[in-house]
Amino acid sequence: MSEHTSKTFLVAVDGSKTSREALDMCCEYLMQHNDRMVVTHIFDRSKMYLPSAMQPAAIREEVEVALIPRFPHAKWELNWVEREPLKTTRQAIMDVVHENHIDILVVGFHGRKGPKSESTVMGTSTEYAIRSSSCPLLVHKKHFDGVFVKWYICVDGSAASQQAFKVVCGLLNAVRGDNVVLLHIDGDQEVTETLEKRYTHLLDELQVPGEFRVVTPTAGATVADTLVSYINESDCDIVVFGADGVSAMNQGVHFLGSVSNGLMSRTRCSCLIVK
Question: Integer distance in angstroms from the first to the last C-alpha of the chain?
């Protein structure tokens, strides 16, 4: 594999269990020797009624306890920001992304208020980040503690899915044992054969451990339904996909496509959304 390019990760924390797990995941599975991490917390002095564990000082202490034994101080910094009156927390997080030239933003699927009554509904800040972030966004959902990461990348011929493959190649750790599964829904035979040939060649050329899998569509199911079912029944740790699918690309629009939205909302594993 090519030499690892240094990256800067931003982890947004709010005192919730999910954000702490997101921080741990970034530390254990994403950070490599020449990477750097910024941890941010957006606080509001009008919310001093929150439990002590969710107060800015307590969250800072918890983060320091997590980082100090793992990394030299030069590899991380804390960015505690008081929210401006006319800005939302989610807008403040995007400001931190832009000001620090972040390569990957890491957040939890739910915020401090916990899971919604409908399990597929994400937190408002997370949803805003998905639609507004200029960099790839990793949304942590479920704790995993394997030795290596099993990356599943959804490919469909769009520029976004090609970029998703490129981003994963820069994140995976082959020495640790990470591997890649490229998923493609069978449709047009010529397109499928072209993609399989292209990605099989790239896996070999870049010495990325992985394989190309063609998934047969489920009768009467949408592409999103088929992929969600397949991934939820697999050993996937992180599913990776482009924010804009091939349909959105053909229409000249840029938003979270129907397939991407289904994957983000309904898969049980963590998700990496690439733009």
Answer: 23
